[in-house]
Amino acid sequence: MAGNAAIPRIIGIDLTRSVAIFFAMLSHVWVVTNMDNFWSGPSADFLRALMALATPTFILLFGTMLEIVYRPRFVAGEQGRVAVRLFSRAIQCWLLYCVSVVVLYLVADGYSLKFSVATMMLLGVTPFTDILKFYAVVLFLAPILLWLRNRVGLLPLVVAALVVHAAHPVIRGLPSPLDFNMGMYAERVVTFLFGVGDAKLGGPSILHGTSLIIAGMAFGRLIAGDRTAGAAKQTVGIVTRASYLLAASVAVLALGILFYDEKSLAELGDMSLRMDSDPLYFGAGLSGAIALTSLAVLLTQGLSPETKQRLEKPVFFGRTSLFTFAFGNMILYGWPATPAAFGSAVFQAVLISITITALSYLFDREVRRGGALAFIVKWLQAKITSFVNAVFVLGTPRAKQA
């Protein structure tokens, strides 16, 4: 019989997710306002590297949620329900990605009807929303990852993730579709899946991103222990675990700072290392993400239940991450002005940030209040879930009659 044990929430993870989505939108605002033209040097490089933590943090937390929320249900016999939930989420990501492509088709140069349709089919590229394409794929792969986690254990998965990065020179040296005159669409697909080739995609690839998801699963196991039903009671609390993880990640970051150079810092922020699937990007991103999440857990774990409940309102970015990322970037796609001076760039950056924040807050408030918007959102989600369930039924062999 499937288990239904409640999974206690860790508010620090919700807080970190909100910070990550905020950093992601700030990095996109930086690009739209041409801030690089007005602010450069080590301070700007450091700020961009800090904002670049958004992607590895978000992917790490996805793996963490797989481990501490979905795996206990998966082990308890709810594999079908878990798969339906993940597949439904994948379709939501893909639909929002398609909507963002429609906006690009309407407002951006270079997005012909043919290229826009190809982009919806995951063959193209978008300026900011390709991470939705990434999540659409990894959410479909997540049940397989959970199955492997239970079948072979976590350690072999971690070793496999490390091998991917150890093999970076080999992977980057492999011939790509363009070497066989197969065209740019094929090049983008192979780069998106494996990090092979020179297609200018935001990344990370599915292969390299999955290594971060596995790291997130390991992080979830380390910080929260085994949350499956029947697991031995944890003798070490979350605060102690978070303290150790924070100390270890800060030590790694401190070691990196001792040997860093300005070129590497700049490349961490301008996506050069990310597009190259460089191990330095993943090492720095993973360490920063663990440090940020562990610190948030330490700051919030000892709070009273009443304080935690009050804290849930300001962390609306975490609850509206899909909405914020999709519609926030649509605002950026249609933003008309191009600043010509530093003051104008700062003003527009603040104005866009306030607009996106207000939009996300209002969306979260309306959904929590259960009004018409909440009804529409839940209706759409229910339709998607019904579709996935129908596909599951069609794909499940009927029991033979006695």
Question: How would you describe the overall organization of this protein?
Answer:
The protein starts with 10 loop residues before the first helix and ends in a 7-residue tail after the last helix. It has helices at residues 11-32, 42-51, 54-75, 79-107, 113-120, 130-152, 154-166, 168-173, 184-194, 206-224, 238-259, 262-269, 272-275, 279-301, 305-311, 316-319, 321-333, 342-369, 372-395. Helix 7 (154-166) crosses helix 10 and helix 17 (321-333) packs antiparallel against helix 18. It has 19 helices and no strands. It has 402 residues and is mainly alpha-helical. It is globular. Mean pLDDT is 88; it is low at 1-5.
Poorly predicted parts: 1-5
The secondary structure category is mainly alpha
Q: How far apart, in Å, are the first and last alpha carbons?
A: 23 Å
Mean of residue pLDDT values: 88
Number of strands: 0
The fraction of residues assigned to DSSP E strands is under 5%
